[in-house]
Amino acid sequence: MPKNFVSRLSSLFSVPIFLFCVLASSAEAPVLTKASISFRVSPVLWQDEVRFEELLQLFEKYKGVTDEITFFTQTTHTPIPDDELVRRCEILRERMLRCREFGYRAGINILCTIGQIPEDLPHSIGPEFQRGIGLTTGLPCPATLCPNNDRFRQRIHKIYTALAEADPDYIWIDDDVRVGHSTGDICFCDSCMKLFNAFAKRQMTREELAHRQTEYEIRAQTVDFSNEVINNIFIEIEKTVHAVRPSLPLGFMTGERYSEGYAFARWARTLAGENSVPVYWRPGGGFYRQDPISGGGGMTAKSHEIGRQIAMLPPDIFVIQSEIENFPYERLQKSKHITALEAACHIAAGCTGAAFNVLTMNHEPLDDFEPLLATLYQWRPFYDEMVRTLARNPAQGVCPAWKPTDGKNPKGNPIRWLALDLAEIGIPFSYDPGRSHVFLLSRNFLNTETREDVLNYLSQGVYTDNDTIGLLNSPSHFNVRDLVGMEYGDTIAVDAIERYTDHPLNANNAGRDRDGRQSFWHDPAIALKKTDDKTEILSSIVDYQGDLTAQMSLGIFENSLGGRICVNGYHPWNHFFSKPKSDQIKRIMRWLSRDRLPAWIDSFHRAHLWVRQSEQGSGGLVIVNTTFDPAENLSIILRTERDVVTACFRDSREVKLQAVEADGPYRRFILPTLAPWDIVLVKCGDT
Length: 687
Hints:
This protein is an alpha/beta fold and 687 residues long. It has 19 helices and 31 strands. The strands form seven sheets. It has an eight-stranded parallel beta barrel with strand order 1-2-3-6-9-10-11-12, surrounded by five helices. The two termini are 52 Å apart.
């Protein structure tokens, strides 16, 4: 880190800059006995005392549905004047005292620290504050403040002092503290460009910096600079709050932060301060309405986003409340059941609770929302049981390879979206590459990896596509042809159908076909070629007449490093929902892992699976039926020596499942039925 940049920002914020540091635990990890549940409420529900009392009475009617009541400072996403925010804090002091009379913890969620989206501009903060300038557009964002000037630092001191003096039990910083806004990456005004140039040891204009974002080194420096700026905002917040309330927890809301390098551990250490005050986290993502429920942009995709965020957190952050947001809070845009199920899915992915932002922000009766509250009340014991069982155990399984520095890669890394169909057939995901033995690799991901990284992947298990092996085999890139066993062959643009060969991993499906319908999706099929006699063929390509047009479209190979690789040249990332393909892919994943895959759904069902076990075997797994059909006789293959596990349903039923079969290190358990879009927790510890 250039010293001149450190000096300038340290002077600007009048505090030292912390280097990257993982939050160290000073005490034994607490035993999580219940979920951490909060409701976030709009000013329309707390500014008027009558409405606020109505809200309290609704919570009292469903006592236990929440532990905490968290108050938004505003409903619009543009910073309001400082004096108005201070005035609201005075009201909130009284509201929070009233909450504690009923046994609730209470805190404040500041919606706008730097701002986000232009709304109600006539009543927003004045022009005396420098607005953020977009990197690519060069335009000011009327809702977003430049975070790198003295006036902004003074504002932080004033408003966060007021927040702390209101005596909350915690303060949440919302996700407007980020780089991406309505005008693109901010802020790159003239002053910020001077700071960037000092940091990067360059002399660039904003226009040149924007133009050169396609270069890895320039993009990497842009991400690191943004990381640094955000960290310094947190330094100022922490210093201000803990000067008033030394032990007050600070929380932060995040999303997928590739543009900032996923510096969660660093930011957590900064927010904890010198006294290591507990830090809260709220991972989130966009799932505001229930269409679609699955696939990209859906509920389960958000759970995987959240899982990746949690993987970057220090192990001693124990309050992890997922964002459950039904914005703009129209009651019928997301059903009661899906809202409740969403919270459970995010707990399955690693959260220890949920923050429900689901109540009205308008002047409409709370009666409209009471059925939703009643449903969440019914689900609450299940959330508690999930957290007691899963605790902070990491997710285990196949890892769609990613890294916090993906944002430095101008070409991006699409594997996290490409791989979603694999999760839909019951293959568990890991979000931490250090906890997986099988990696799903894309070419774009490997673009920024080193040869040492590649050799590490190839010494384990790898599932990939033809584009990726082109990069692996290339003499000008990694040149590991001898470790792959296959190479790119001819392209078959039309009429290609996959046919399964007579191979043990295909079981009794030899001769069956999979037609990806190129005429509709226009995806090319790739004929692969052996580069080693030990390469085994699992699929060929035939045309619509059944004539062979390529000997191999999917192959497997075991290399000299002891690694195993599968290359798929025919719709490698989708069209997995036929039984022969589903069966084949699951057997391939087991083979790639050398029997270290922790579990999978072995029957022909569309279901999500998260495996969350400790090294000692405690914890469990969570299954979600992601169809509108009941899952009958769902078969779970679990790597365990136990012959009995316990299935816990959301209605508090518990059913003992007896192993019906043993296969090496695995046991097979049969779940009699799982209702459509329902969830079950399987406890693998003491039964």
